Amino acid sequence: MAKIKSNNFLDTVNEVFTDAKEAGILHLYAEDESFSGRTLQIQNKKLFHFGTTGYLGLEQDIRLKEAAINAITKYGTQFPLSKSYISHPLYKTLEEHVKEMYGNNIIITKNSTLGHLGVIPSAVDDQDAIILDHQVHWSVQSAAKTLKSRSVPIEMIRHNNLQMLEDKIKALSPKHKRIWYMCDGIYSMYGDYAPIKELVALCNKYPQLFLYCDDVHGMSWIGKKGTGYVLSQLTELPKNILIFGTLSKTFGASGAFLACSDTKMYQKIKTFGGPLTFSAQLEPASVGAAIASAKIHLSPEIYTLQSELKERIDLFNHLLSQTDLPLVNKNNSPVFYIGTGMPKTGYNFVNRLMQEGYFVNLGLFPAVPVKNTGVRITISRHNQKEEIKSLVAAMSYHFPKSLDSTNTTKHRVYSAFKIPTPMVADDETSNKLTLQMEDTIQNIAKVEWNEMLGKQGIFDWEGLLFLESVFNNNIMKEHNWKFYYFIIRDTKNKPILATFFTFNLWKEDMLASETVSIKLEQQRIKNPYLFTSYVLSMGSLFSEGQHYYLDKNHSDSKMAFNMMFQKLDDLDLKLNPSMLVLRDFEMDANLNQKFHQQGFIKANMPESCTIENLNWNNTDVYIASLSSRNRRHFRKDIVPFESCFEITIKSELNSQELSHLYDLYENVRKNNLGLNTFSFPKKMLEIMSNHPNWEFIILTLKKELNPQNSIPVGVMFCYKNGNNLYTPAFVGMNYTYLRKYQIYRQLLFQTIKRAGELHFKSINFGMTAAFEKKKLGAKIKSKVAYIQAKDNFSMEMMDAINNEN
């Protein structure tokens, strides 16, 4: 398999958001003439508001409104001057109030994003290192990445994985002064907590460890004086923990702040702090409202407000416990996440709830993996008990209908989130269709398989039997593959859909840039299985082409398509791969949307290269079929070098030849980190040598050019698919002679020549080196894959490594 190209992350997000926008979920407009906090009007419909982050409802408090109006009346709409010169008259009062809340030094910032950009580069020294929880808020990650220009190492761990964190601390501690772990106090999607007490224990064990906690979703609704979740877990704020809080969201105003007990660090950050110096100040209205809110936080009233919110949270938790709705994380925060699995199910569910009169948020990629789409519900003091009860009733009623409407099941949703599946009767199969699933091609009729998938390459019946023999009973785990064959038939036993999947170990950087692979291979000298995981993939790493058959004209083709995904979910649950990959598809907007709604994101693949309608007579006739530019290339870079080689075609090899040709193949594999795969087992060549469909095009430099060494310098491993397709599957080369004698170009031409002499009409040249193959007459087609990952960790890790200096 050729390497999947590195993809533009923003393009992927744009496609996902565009799909959600077209479904009527994103980029909506509120139409209210005034807000109460309890309802929103969208598209002329009044909806109960279950999407706010103003959990205590303070943004509608009359005291905050009057304070904001009074500040505008006295000081204007803004104070257009940098705080480095002079702060607005109300700033000092606000700082004193928030400092009283936290009992520590406070730095006010314009907002959280600018605050992180100001604080993190000032707090972290060049001798420090950073470890990010991979679910920490984007604004923290973005600010941390600015330190790469100062060569500060940035590592990442899986969400709340303390063992992984400790391993990173041990690895970084010998070379770095401080190690910063950056996390959220309350995570914004699932409402789950950072394990603060366990993190403090790690700080005590490793004094180099410092914590940077973004607690904007933990503010106000919990903690003494509303100081948030993180401080509620601490007796006091130590010098090695920084807390970032918000003056917006639950606080009801605007802005953000840092709480810091280390006076020296506080002075350093406050003195300059990047955006803290150059960004505009908070508007007088925001400062005035924040002062009014701070006064409430400093009064006993805050505990009354917290208690009123807790009653609503407890009620919602109790009502959910009486349903089988897939609540992803049960806790006491105001944030709840009901999993829907596939985006299309999420769209359907949200639209149904909006029609019933409830506004909720959709959680979707990149905030969560595509397959972990769900509905994020937030509870606030605005919500009355009656509408909380009716929301749960509406969800209980519409959730199964959304599943039915989108051809999915509760079992699939629960499996996507690794939630124990309740005892529910899911009709996952249709009595109209039957599925045959086998783990060896030998259990499938040869004629039937070859009629559907036997004319495209190394996955005809004979080719798959060859692959099964190669990737079985090997010592190294990466050389052992599992095969799964699907055939879905109608009531007359006629196939509608057929495909096959392999389950095997991949290098996770196979989907990343060559730069990432180079860096990881250096680390794999000591740890060969670093960043490797098992993947369930359509087709195999050995084959290329359209790995599926689908009778698109069959009336039940859509049903067969959905059945395949249901069975893939079962296989996914059984095997637990890190990724599910569907690959080698041509660009198709409708297919792209269909796969996205099934929980996949698109990844560009290298272009496919084929020669079709080859009608070989001789070299001169072939040259004449090329463009004038390509003819010049042929005469310059291929014709003069053909006479340098002894060219032999072999179908059987002796042990010495097998060993040498394997070494040539390994040369290419190790040098082609743009296609970073594990090796194939050595017995592969021996099985090829004994197989009637394989042959080897071998180049050996003539003795006068290399008198001391008459061994081959190049080889093409070619598979003959009946009379249908000639497939040069892999290449091997000696890099000492590569450029001088144009070995690769000569192998491409000799492949075309051999295919023509055997009367093959088509050649599948694969997906690498498209530029070289195009010059020899190959047609180029764009290809894409669709990837469904368990989480976004690997993708984010590869991106982080790629952006390192």
Number of domains: 4
Based on the coordinates given, report the CATH architecture of the largest domain.
Answer: 3-Layer(aba) Sandwich
Given this structure, which CATH class of the largest domain is correct? Alpha Beta
CATH superfamily of the largest domain: Type I PLP-dependent aspartate aminotransferase-like (Major domain)
Tell me how many strands there are. Answer: 26
Please describe the biggest sheet, giving its number of strands, its sense, and whether it closes into a barrel: 9 strands, mixed
Quaternary state reads: single chain
Beta fraction of the residues?
A: 15-25%
The average pLDDT score comes to 91
Shape: globular
What is the overall number of helices?
28
Distance between the termini: 29 Å
Helix content: 25-40%
Which structural class do the helices and strands define?
alpha+beta
- Rg over CA atoms, rounded to whole Å, is 31 Å
At the third CATH level, what is the topology name of the largest domain? Aspartate Aminotransferase, domain 2
Uncertain segments: 1-6, 425-429
